[in-house]
């Protein structure tokens, strides 16, 4: 009886855990795409500056040319057509240095990896075949200051997937990249010059935002980049919006838009002030810039707030609680019913045993009476 009741309570408990945990446990795995499998290995030269790096870290001479090579392999049973392209390192709107095709190189760059390197190569690979791809890098006669940072971007044009990184969207999802860092004066240390180029309020990806364009006009990569931005009402200095970026990074001579959403409260059209406090290690920058939120943008933002659908999460929570209660009541009822059935079975067994005992007693008594009568006759 107690064991059966325990079983039903256990069922109810497991149901409760399932609801609280958000449903059944699911084993997630990445689906393999047969169009996407290839390998890329940099063939690092002997004059590599950093012997531990798995990317090209090279000193180049002004007015000279040199080659860089990568090995591309197709481990599949089907042929592959791949494209290997030189690209510039840039910065995404999430505030991270990235190696993807884009046009975000800042105008302050003396030269770029893409400008210095020979063009894209289309590579046809038979099944289980590998090939070496060679690019020529030509350094300007005047050389360059700091670091030129880019990469060799390898993709399969038939692997049609899409992904986003900040404002970048890649239609050819599966790709590999080998980074390339070039120096005329290896590991030259330069003071980072960060600038606030512009502040505008407009729709970005369909959402009203304040966009602060930040430029790294130095030919140097830097990280540990933290930004805290505040939007104030110019007339009253009342803070209305904030945005923070933690542990970001910026590629040499690149820019990105720091997007600040307009929040969940109505905003009036008018003059506002953006204040930006940015740090990278011991480096500190502070910027302040006035801008205008137009009546059209303010109206679009406020209408979005008014048409926002109500949140019915509390109804789903109530339904979940009711379902748990029903499961518990069902388990209790089933356990009690099973217990009663067991008790009834025990009572029936007792009655059967009692009847059997009574029958045996009557039989014995009858036998004794017969024997007594037989004795009297004799």
Automatic annotation (TrEMBL):
InterPro entries: WxLIP_HBD, WxLIP_PGBD. Residues 338-378 are annotated as: Disordered. Residues 38-155 form the WxL Interacting Protein peptidoglycan binding domain. It comes from the Bacteria. Residues 354-367 have a biased composition (Low complexity). Residues 368-378 have a biased composition (Basic and acidic residues). Keywords: Membrane, Signal, Transmembrane, Transmembrane helix. The chain crosses the membrane at residues 313-334. Residues 167-303 form the WxL Interacting Protein host binding domain. Residues 1-30 form the signal peptide. Residues 341-350 have a biased composition (Acidic residues). The keyword Transmembrane applies. The keyword Transmembrane helix applies. This is DUF916 and DUF3324 domain-containing protein. It comes from Levilactobacillus suantsaiihabitans.
